């Protein structure tokens, strides 16, 4: 296992004419850590990765790897491995030759590069396919070959640019688990760029949420989801009900329950952002709310509820519990006592 190296991104900015694609990004990756940059299209996450790789120059800021400033170092001397959305395998080379290609460019002897390539193929479970060509592999297998090729040269840093977005849903889940396992085993410091929140939460040690070129919050997956620092994070990572509320003495009354508020919440009148799974429904003839719709999603269901006054909230619960609720069922509505973020009543920007 590699010891990994630290990566420091300090005040990184990138402008294209009047457009600021990256706006003062600062980020530290600990040795061996896997950090995901998450955000919508155009938020700056891929620009940050390309600058880290040396494929673009920053307008301002600097990058250091293992304490060495590499801001002006060309990409071929940065000692980084990359895996893209497109597999980018050579169709005329075998799987083994594809994985060994970077080692060949570095002048490694044939026996040494074949041994290392086979070791990496074994790591991703494809040693038996070493003599096949890329066209004979599935999309998931091709991306595993691309991962093996990137790791074969023992890079200081691994960069993954939307590596799973071209795959179907089931293969994406399998491959993200494979990436996490392999990265943990080799210990390479890794930056993973994605627009898929579930993917980021599942694979990363920490997740940084980006919006309009800026880093809104970076935290572990659990903290990011349970304690969003900004309205954008609360709305982008998972679903949130927007419920009118008034903050009094650090607590807020929401749907009949008084709960604490998160740091960063507004004072006075605002809007509480409440996760659907925090909304609890109890069927009762005396209930003041009415089930409006039920969406079955397999292991869970989302239940839309119409409150007194016409407001609408969504609850998420197990499929078994939700099956007892049908449109028209009267319910009592409460929320879990977990802290919530209360924001101003303005629209959250996307």
Automatic annotation (TrEMBL):
Transmembrane segments: none annotated. The keyword Nucleotide-binding applies. Residues 7-237 form the ABC transporter domain. Its EC number is 7.6.2.9. It comes from the Bacteria. The keyword Transmembrane does not apply. InterPro entries: AAA+_ATPase, ABC_SmlMolc_Importer, ABC_transporter-like_ATP-bd, ABC_transporter-like_CS, Mo/tungstate-bd_C_term_dom, P-loop_NTPase, Transp-assoc_OB_typ2. One of its GO terms (molecular function) is ATP hydrolysis activity. GO terms for cellular component: ATP-binding cassette (ABC) transporter complex. Keywords: ATP-binding, Hydrolase, Nucleotide-binding, Transport. It holds the Pfam family TOBE_2. This is ABC-type quaternary amine transporter. The lineage of its organism: Bacteria, Bacillati, Actinomycetota, Actinomycetes, Mycobacteriales.
């Amino acid at each position: 296992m590699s010891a990994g190296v630290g990566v420091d991104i300090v005040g990184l900015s990138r402008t294209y004419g009047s457009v600021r694609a990256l706006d003062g990004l600062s980020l530290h990756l600990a040795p061996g850590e896997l950090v995901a940059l998450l955000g919508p299209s155009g938020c700056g996450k891929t620009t940050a990765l390309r600058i880290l790789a040396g494929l673009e120059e920053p307008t301002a800021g600097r990058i250091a790897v293992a304490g060495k400033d590499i801001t002006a170092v060309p990409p071929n001397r940065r000692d980084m491995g990359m895996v893209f959305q497109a597999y980018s395998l050579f169709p005329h080379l075998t799987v083994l030759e594809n994985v060994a290609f970077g080692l060949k460019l570095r002048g490694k002897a044939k026996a040494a590069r074949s041994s290392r390539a086979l070791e990496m193929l074994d790591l991703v479970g494809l040693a038996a396919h070493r003599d096949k060509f890329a066209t004979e592999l599935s999309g998931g297998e091709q991306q595993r070959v691309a991962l093996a090729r990137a790791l074969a040269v023992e890079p200081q840093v691994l960069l993954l640019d939307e590596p799973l977005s071209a795959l179907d849903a089931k293969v994406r889940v399998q491959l993200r688990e494979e990436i996490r396992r392999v990265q943990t085993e080799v210990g390479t410091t890794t930056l993973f760029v994605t627009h898929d929140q579930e993917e980021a939460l599942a694979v990363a040690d920490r997740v940084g949420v980006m919006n309009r070129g800026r880093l809104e919050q970076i935290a572990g997956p659990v903290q990011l989801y349970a304690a969003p620092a900004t309205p954008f994070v609360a709305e982008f990572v998972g679903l949130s009900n927007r419920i009118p509320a008034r903050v009094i003495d650090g607590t807020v009354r929401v749907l009949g329950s008084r709960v604490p508020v998160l740091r960063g919440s507004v004072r006075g009148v605002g809007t509480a952002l409440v996760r659907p799974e925090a909304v609890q429904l109890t069927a009762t003839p005396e209930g003041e709310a009415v089930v409006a719709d039920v969406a079955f999603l397999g292991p869970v269901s989302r239940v839309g509820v119409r409150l007194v006054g016409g407001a609408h909230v969504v609850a998420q619960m197990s499929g078994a519990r939700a099956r007892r609720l049908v449109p028209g069922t009267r319910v009592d509505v409460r929320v879990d006592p977990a802290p919530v973020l209360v924001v101003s009543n303005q629209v959250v920007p996307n």
